[in-house]
Structure formats: C-alpha cells, structure tokens
Amino acid sequence: MGETIYNLIQPPPPVQTHNNLHVSNFAKRSVQFNTVKRYAHRTFGEPLDKIRKDPKDPLKAHERTPDLPPRPRTTSHGNETLNKPPVPIREEIPPIVDAPERNFIRENIKEAPETTVLKPEKKKTWYTEKSEYGQTPRYLDNVKREFMAETAYWDGVRESLLPEDNETRCRLLTEEERLKILEGLKMNLTENKKKYGSLSFGQDHMSFRKRKEGMENEAKQLEEDIKLFSRQNVYITEN
Predict the structure, then answer these.
(1) Contact of 232 with 178, CB cutoff 8 Å
(2) Residue 214 domain-assigned?
C-alpha cells in the first residue's frame, strides 16, 4: 500500500497477558465464614429485574442499559454550511487512485490561441518626439517667479533696517593704515599673552577667575581682528 494518512494512526497496544491469580489455601478447606450484612441495601433495596447471586456470573457492562435508537447528527446554529460527512473509520480506507500523467506543455500549446492578454503591450513613445521636448517646464517658471518675489521682499526689509543717516560712508583703508593697525593689534596680543603667562596658578578665587576669563576673551578678540586686518582690502565706515 502506498503512503496515506491512515497509516499515521498508531496501532492499538498489545494485549498483556497476566499469570494466574494467587489462590489461597483457605479456599480449598471446608471452612465457612458467615458474615451478616445488617445494613445491606438499606436505602434502595436489591434490584428488581435481576439479581446475580452467583459470583461466577457477574453483571456485565451496559447489560441493564436499554437499547436506544441512534442519536441523529446535528449541527450548531450558524454552522449549517460547515456540515461535513463523518470521518471514515480505520477499516474504511478509501482506495488510492494514481493521478493520470499529463503533458502540460502540449496542453498549453493547444490553449494558447484561446487565451486573452491580461496586460496588453503599450505603444513605445519617444520623448524627443513630444511637443514639450526641449522647453522649460511650467513649474520651473512658477518657482523662478516665487524666488524673484521673495528676493525683492527681503531686499526691501534690509533697506528698511538701514540707518537714516545718509552721510555714513565706507572707505577702503590704505596699505599704510592697514599695516599700522595690524602691527598694533599684534603688539597688544603679545602683551596680553605675556600678562596671561605671568598669572599665578596657585590662586583660585572669584576675582582671579574673572580676570583670567577677561584676558582670554580679549586674546580671542585680538586674534579675530588680526585675521580680519590681514586681508588685502579692508573697508571702514565713516560719519
């Protein structure tokens, strides 16, 4: 038999055979033990239909159960469409039918003329043949117009922030003036570094910290000024 799901069911366990029960020697003797059951069947009494007094003929399972008709198979409410046939028992294994061999290539060749194309091919278009090829897109014109408007707005804002004194003018420093100012800045920076290097490191109070921070800020500003006046062209404002 081929592979089937019914072979996955585990076989029943083997029947275990037990040895003969132990028989007491007292059973062979002619000794009678008379016991009195004073309260036997006190509430219900003995069964009316049948009483088994012989221990070799006990009452068997379901012997007193009446024969009822088979219970009809019902489905719960809402599951009427899920009514499936009962699961076959183990002895009713359905026969296994081998699937017929099919030539799918030959079948596809026969069915190809009757099939419809789900996604028809689109006509190939060349962008160089379109009417708008080589022209500026419309959205770029809108962006350019917005940029010009924003530039004009900020130019007006800058002009409104300028001082009203029209006599303020800017002029270019001569080379002699620029070098003279640059030399003075370098001398001030050298003197600042000299004073900063002569500070005592053992002191640690508020006035000493403020003095030290002031010298550091002054040196930083002097370095920025030196970098500015080291350029070729320096302009200054005059009233």
Answers:
(1) no
(2) yes
